[in-house]
Amino acid sequence: MSRLRTRLGNLGVSDRLGLRAPIFGFSHAVEVVAAITNAGGYGVYGATRRLPEEIEAELAWIRARVGDRPFGVDLVIPAKVPEKNDRAALEKEIPEPHRAFIEGIEAKYAVPKPSGPGMRTRFIRSEEIQDAQIAAVAASDVDLVALGIGCPPEVVATMKARGKTTVALVGQERHAAKALEAGVDLLVAQGYDAGGHTGVVGTFSLVPRIVDLAGDVPVLAAGGVSTGRHVAAALAMGAAGVWVGTAFLLTEENASHLTRGEVEALVRSQATDTVISRAESGKPFRQTRSAWSEEWAAPGAPQPLGHPLHDVLVGDILGAIEEHDVRPLAHSGAGQGIGWFDRMRPVADVMADLTAEAEAAIDRMSRAREEVPA
Amino acid sequence: MSRLRTRLGNLGVSDRLGLRAPIFGFSHAVEVVAAITNAGGYGVYGATRRLPEEIEAELAWIRARVGDRPFGVDLVIPAKVPEKNDRAALEKEIPEPHRAFIEGIEAKYAVPKPSGPGMRTRFIRSEEIQDAQIAAVAASDVDLVALGIGCPPEVVATMKARGKTTVALVGQERHAAKALEAGVDLLVAQGYDAGGHTGVVGTFSLVPRIVDLAGDVPVLAAGGVSTGRHVAAALAMGAAGVWVGTAFLLTEENASHLTRGEVEALVRSQATDTVISRAESGKPFRQTRSAWSEEWAAPGAPQPLGHPLHDVLVGDILGAIEEHDVRPLAHSGAGQGIGWFDRMRPVADVMADLTAEAEAAIDRMSRAREEVPA
Fold first, then answer.
1. Complex ipTM tops 0.90
2. For chain A, what is the radius of gyration of the CA atoms?
3. What is the dihedral of CA A266, B276, A207, A197, to 10 degrees?
4. Structural domain range at position A90
């Protein structure tokens, strides 16, 4: 058996924790997270839209399936959110043209009423809920805590005091500088190519810059990592490993979390079928192109609101689109690597392909180096 | 002496032509092109804004300096251009609000009149001039012909019949398919990270897709290649080499082609200080952010025109901005790698750094592969 050994050894991650390859996998599905870890990677559960008591139960569910193997949880902690979870107060701030625009989309595409609030409106991000989420994570035995947006030093300190590895996702150098100042153990340099919330600097341009800035702190490359060649390229750029999301969307373990419309969008999409839009959350978010992103990009459409006000505006209709699988509005967060994935596979197969191809790419490169007479 | 050996050997490029490393360097300065080739790379002269007789003289100038070493020339051949070089006819098509917008910028920033037409208006791209440029290149002894935009099969055939290596720059898979159909010898997969005319797919996401599509045709990675780690990463992704532009902007050989304002913009810019704007040519073009790109992005600004009509609109004012070095409108085409470059260096130093660091990165990766007990 071979293994990719990287600077993650400094953290004790690859040695102590038995990683076969420095591949971190992000998912909103607990089944996917457990499968990544059990396949020798490092599963990370995207829990930011879950209530504190749900997070507690879900982390315990994963632990029961992975035993001593490592896994993580990801939270999003933006700087400015309301103090309390008070939807009624925020509703009053929504401009009338924005309401009319949403009602227009509901009418045009005959969107049925949702049975309840959507993923973005079941609770509204607030200091109160964020604090309770952080407490639930700190009290759990999760091994790693990743911060997808925002990196408050006190959260990093709390988690480190509990013996957890702390990670910040960054899309530009100034965010990395802040995260390093906060004392994180690991950075994820996530480029423009990524799915979900993302920035403007291409993954290829971003990764080595963050590596140089990070000094002794290891960096994972994120945004477009889809094949083992990407894993090898990330290591060539000085990354200690990779952070992967899109590759685990079309997996058997994720199937129950996707609607038919979402699966179809993911299967047919190439890189050029994804767009960055602020229509999802008020922040730039890469997703498969659909009537949803197109309506918001059309002439005369309103500008998306700030976060989390935009969540209040769109949470219910996004929930209805998902619940009733409304075409052609159905879409999914996805990165520019989506073109590589066109069928459901077990997570273990995705992991095996990434690892084997990375090793082959490194061996091929070694052969490219030859000594020749001067 | 060591050398990076890649699939370019199949073309006979690295063996027959004595490349030390598979690094192709693009420049609008003949001095830079000659220096890249003389440093063991493959210089390519961006000649699309030059008249046929100028191209003939400039290719001969380079040949006199590089001897038998290889170099290339790059032309841009868009599909739809006017038949003749008739500026007066195009002027009539420019909408009044666009003229007023340009006059507003001239007044606001006190732009002096130019002494003559600018780079984009000294001639207007037309079939007549393109045909004469192609004839001049075909008649020259240049080794390689790159097509930056457009890939007409008859041009590829003409150049191959003259024994020249043919290359197409592509930013998405469907462009690559057309270029392969046209019979090119080499593809350049140029991602969103690149300076100048560029597309939406990140370099990291684009390169391995084009490699897979290209089969036996070698692919160069372009868009953000700034360090030897990028060269190693490109090889890891399956590329046979790299195509570099931004790294050669701040070089001593290019200094006489830059205004002080352009140098300052390049020196201070980081990746996030570049923007993609259609304000330069009517097509998406990455450049350093300036009052020029900001004015065109402001609310109420007109949409850029199509190409080449937009050239007619902006050619003279862009020429005046350059001639009189007008701040804060001064800017330069540049890719997201610009943050790596902050001082003038000789081309040979840039080449030496790229090569040495690429070799070191590959050696480092080889050590990451270890056999461990199963």
1. yes
2. 21
3. -40
4. 86-121+256-341
Residues A194 and A136 in one domain: yes
Query: In this predicted model, what pLDDT tens digit does every residue of B206-226 receive, in sequence order?
Result: 999 999 999 999 999 999 999
Question: Is pLDDT above 90 for A31?
Answer: yes
CATH number of the domain bearing residue B240 = 3.20.20.70
In this prediction, residues A127-149 reach a mean pLDDT of 96
Q: Are residues A308 and A209 in the same domain?
A: no
Percent over 70 (pLDDT), chain A: 93
User: Per the structure block, which two tokens stand in for A210?
Assistant: 């963050």
Residue B240: closest CA among chain A residues belongs to which residue? A368
Residues 6+ apart with CB under 8 A from A218: A6, A7, A8, A10, A11, A186, A187, A239, A240, A241
* Residues of chain A contacting residue B210, judged by C-beta atoms under 8 Å apart: none
Q: Which two tokens stand for residue A352?
A: 């095996």
Verify that A150 and A92 share a domain, yes or no.
Answer: no
pLDDT of residue B363: 84
**A145 with A279, same domain?**
no
Q: What is the DSSP letter of B168?
A: E
Confidence (pLDDT) at A363: 84
All residues of chain B having their beta carbon less than 8 Å from the beta carbon of residue A244 are: none
* B262 in the same domain as B224: no
CA diameter of chain B: 76
Q: Which residue has the tokens 């095996």?
A: A352
Residue keyed to tokens 């602020």? A278
Residues 260-279 of B with CB under 8 A from A: 270-272
